[in-house]
Amino acid sequence: MKKIFYYLMAFTLGFSTLTMAQQKDNFLATQPVYLDNGYLDNESVEDLRKTQMYVKAVSAYEFALPIVGLEQWRKNFLKEAEYGDFLLYDNLDQKISIITANKTTPYTVSFVDLRTSAYYIEIPAGRIGGLLLDNYQRPQADLGILGPDKGKGGKYLVVGPEDNVPENHDADYVIKSTTNVIFFGTRIIGAKDAEEVDKLRKQHFVYKITDSKEGQKWIDATATPEWRGRQSRDLEYWEDLYNALVMETVEGVNRLIWTQLRDLGITKSGGFHPNKEEQEILIMATQKGEAIAMVQTFSKKSYKSKHWEDRNWRYILNQSRLDLMHEDYYEAKEIASFTYEAITTSKGMVLPTVGQGSKYLGVYVDGDEEWLDGSNTYEIIIPKDVPAADFWSIAVYNNDTRCLIENESKKSIVNNKREIKVEKDGSVKVFIGPECPKGYEANWVESNKGEGFFMYFRLYGPLESYYDKTWKMSDVNRVK
After folding, report:
1. Residue 71 sits in which domain range?
2. Neighbour tally for 382: CB within 10 Å
3. In total, how many domains does the chain have?
4. d(CA 302, CA 315)
5. What is the CATH number of the domain that holds 155?
6. Which residues contact 429 (CB under 8 A, 6 or more apart)?
7. Signal sequence span per UniProt (predicted)?
8. What phi, psi does 250 have (nearest 5°)?
9. What gap in Å lies between CA 324 and CA 334, rounded to an integer?
10. pLDDT by residue (tens digit) across 326-380?
11. Is 469 in a helix, a strand, or coil?
12. How far is the C-alpha of 145 from the C-alpha of 148, rounded, in Å?
């Protein structure tokens, strides 16, 4: 005689074209699991098999977020440039594709494939913040003011994870990367004008150790590109993940991801060949995985702790180790909650560095803990004596693309590098809303009705009063 053993969240397949909202009620159906003389019946076996595949795919989605985020940039970088070239990002139209970009600082960016050769990287002296990331967005080294060259410039040698450091190199510093594909980028912080930016950029070099730096290319990034930097969705997410992982040695974290995907038609040696059933499960997993990523990134149940207990500004970076290797676990949730909404990190962003580097706070709700809504108008009061040695900025991002907000006024950032209205007490009022309050044009970012958004508050060269929390800004308060 059959009896009900327990209930299982089983699949209803065949509706992958529906939106997440449409799937809310029928995404998963509760079904009993039956035992017959101690054995599972055939229907329960099939339900459990699909459930196992789905659970593994949802887990793989989380681990893969930093990889797929960087792969989105890499594959589009290669449409405009080649490994070792520099793409230059200066204005809003160029940066609109990069998730949570900052329009204020010029970006100089390259990708390198160390399977072909070790590379030299050269940067000049100056207030330059440089970073080198592996394929999982784990910092390999800071360069520039927070790097070993301390802003004096230098020549770096970068070698792959399975390569030996070549003899007779002439680099000042050696970096052994943990992955074959690496990202290199700098932000020029202290330049007084575009001419100085260009001069410093033309002293950036990335080249194979067997080549000459004379062939270096600096290419202006495409204005208003069609792509957006958020992670791809549906089956493309897994295609991007495969294309990134297949270039790397099977080890550590990626071994875990390969293990999770092996029953879904995706293996390094066998290629990317999920069948129809596996594709449907993979697509559903990206939809559920992204919804979970939203919880971890935007909500008060996220892995992001508050900077001030009585404010809703949260640390966007919550990892405790640069390599994400906590003594008890891998900080997968911490890096996932960051890389769902942002891209690239560095020592200067993770560790306390008074007067140098940068610190970011994110906000997703107003003072009443309601989601930020583009139909409303909000006010932020920034008190005087902002703890920033260089400058501060507030940037507004669309919560779907996670890119700088696109509006009629073509403005997404307020910062103190430009002329803004300052109150008599030295504070600054920043407004975000569909209409500009009279007299605050320089302090206003236009929001789009019917669209959600979030904001970053950036401090470049954070000072002690940021770390000891004696300086405090307001919540994002709705103007009623």
Report:
1. 1-79+231-298
2. 22
3. 3
4. 11
5. 2.60.40.1610
6. 379, 380, 381, 382, 421, 423, 440, 443
7. 1-21
8. -75, 110
9. 8
10. 899 988 889 999 999 999 988 777 778 888 888 999 999 999 999 999 999 999 9
11. coil
12. 8
Residue 187, in any domain of the structure: yes
Are 461 and 387 contacting, i.e. CB atoms less than 8 angstroms apart? Answer: no
Residue 91 has pLDDT above 60, yes or no: yes
Could you say which of 220, 249, 279 is where a domain stops?
220
Helical pair 42-77 and 276-298, crossing angle rounded to 10 deg:
70
Look at residue 225 and tell me if it is in a domain.
Answer: no
Element (H, E) at 381: strand 378-382
Q: What is the pLDDT of residue 304?
A: 82
Which pLDDT score is estimated for 30? 55
Report the candidate in 315, 331, 358, 329 with the shortest Cα–Cα distance to residue 137. Answer: 331
Contact criterion met (CB below 8 Å) for 173 and 210: no
Among 269, 242, 243, 271, CA closest to 257: 242
| Residues ≥6 apart with Cβ < 8 Å to 274 | 235, 238, 264, 265, 266, 282
**Same domain membership, residue 443 and residue 321:** yes
**pLDDT at site 229:** 86
Backbone angles phi, psi at 48, to 5 degrees: -70, -35
Looking at the structure, tell me whether residues 63 and 98 fall in a common domain.
Answer: no
Contacts of 382 (CB under 8 A, 6+ apart): 392, 394, 427, 428, 429, 430, 473, 474
User: Is the domain of 200 the same as that of 244?
Assistant: no
Residues in the chain: 480
Pairwise pLDDT comparison (53 vs 17), residue with the higher score? 53
For the stretch 142-155, pLDDT in tens is 999 999 999 999 99
Q: Tens of pLDDT along 239-266?
A: 999 999 999 999 888 999 999 999 999 9
Rounded Cα distance, 76 and 93, in Å: 15
Identify which has the larger pLDDT, 134 or 357: 134
Query: In this structure, is residue 226 part of a structural domain?
Result: no
Rounded CA separation 150/143 (Å): 8
Q: How far is CA 192 from CA 152, 180, 198, 390, 459, in A?
A: 18, 36, 11, 12, 18
Spatial CB neighbours of 442, under 8 Å, sequence gap ≥ 6: 414, 418, 419, 420, 421
